[in-house]
Amino acid sequence: KFFGLAGLRLGFVAASPVLLARLADQLGPWTVSGPAQIIGTAALSDVDWQRVMRPRLQQDGQRLATLLREAGMASHGCALFRYWRTDQPEAFAEHMAGCGIWVRRFEHGIRLGLPANELAWQRLQHALSAWQALQVSIATRRT
Fold it and tell me: Residue 141 contacts by C-beta under 8 Å, 6 or more apart in sequence?
């Protein structure tokens, strides 16, 4: 997740030889493709990029948590994404999709990752404000 290489299908385990042998027995011969090995090696070798990204991701994660809190979402998660429970996950996901924002919808909640750039942050803030206004409008009509 840290490297932002969605879909790469690459993972590894650093462990003692005994544990590695047990895992190999349980998992079977799952090979990693050549392109995935090359990309993974390049990502792990780029320590300068990692050094720059760690604080940036922490800052962006805090920014997302604050934005969601200000929009009334009690979220939890990590620097890369936030999750919160809602009784309207489908409606929220549809609203966000209409604003050009992809969220991961679960039966009783939503997960949202970090926006890619400043324009995407602004789009997210606008979409959350519009969602809040919609919820206020619905609540007002009910009373």
Answer: none
* Tokens, residue 3: 């490297």
**What's the pLDDT tens digit per position in 74-99?**
999 999 999 999 999 999 999 999 99
Least confident range from 5-19, 51-65, 93-107: namely 5-19
Overall residue count recorded for the chain in this entry: 143
- Higher pLDDT residue, 1 or 19? 19
Confidence band of 43 (pLDDT split at 50, 70, 90):
very high
* Secondary structure (H, E, C), the chain: CCCCCCCCCCCCCCCCHHHHHHHHHHHCCCCCCHHHHHHHHHHHHCHHHHHHHHHHHHHHHHHHHHHHHHCCCCCEECCCEEEEECCCHHHHHHHHHHCCCCCEEECCEEEEECCCCHHHHHHHHHHHHHHHHHHHHHHHHHC
